[in-house]
Specification:
Layout: E1 3-6, E2 15-19, E3 26-27, E4 37-42, E5 46-49, E6 65-66, E7 75-78, E8 82-85, E9 94-98, E10 103-105, E11 108-109, E12 113-114, E13 116-119, E14 122-128, H1 129-132, E15 140-147, E16 157-160
Antiparallel strand pairs: 1-2, 3-4, 4-5, 6-16, 7-10, 7-16, 8-9, 11-12, 13-14, 14-15
Length: 161
């Protein structure tokens, strides 16, 4: 079934282009649960209804996960679904859910160390929102990277190359 790309996040706004059902698109950001529309970057910029989206596998030339970082690299990929919040707290204001393979940029402090904070049995990692979601979000957000009680050895982030 064909679907339109809208100029604004509303079905009453102008349809910029009609896409055929199996057209691959690139999202500008990961939509939050309950969002009716999401901005897309390609094949053209605009908004599409989230109800018509289907997950597809990334291409072979997509960024690969590496266990060793490139020195000074702030690029990370999400390993499992995780909430992006405004503050390093389970009570922090919700921004969106980050899904596996989403690429984000962490904030680094002196010595190329990831900016983190330990609170509520989690290690929180600060995310640079303007770099991770250019033109969509600004400031900083936080994800619970490690659950110190249930899964202390696991991280929600992997290095990207």
């Amino acid at each position: 079934m064909d679907t339109p790309i809208f100029q604004e996040p509303s079905t009453s706004s102008k349809a910029i282009r009609i896409l055929s059902a199996k057209t691959e698109i690139n999202l500008a950001y990961i939509p939050a649960s309950g969002d009716k529309f999401v901005r897309i970057k390609s094949p053209t910029s605009g908004f599409i209804q989230t109800a018509v989206l289907k997950f597809c596998q990334t291409k072979n030339n997509a960024q690969k996960l590496w266990t060793k970082p490139t020195i000074g690299s702030a690029c990370r990929q999400i390993v499992q679904p995780v909430a992006l919040l405004r503050q390093p707290s389970t009570k922090g204001a919700f921004i969106t859910t980050l899904n596996p393979n989403a690429v984000v940029f962490v904030n680094l402090v002196t010595g190329n160390i990831v900016k983190s904070y330990k609170s509520e049995n989690y290690i929180w990692v600060e995310i640079d929102l303007s770099r991770s979601f250019p033109g969509e979000l600004s400031g900083n957000g936080w994800i619970a990277n490690t659950d110190l009680v249930n899964t202390p050895g696991l991280s929600n982030l992997a290095y990207c190359r």
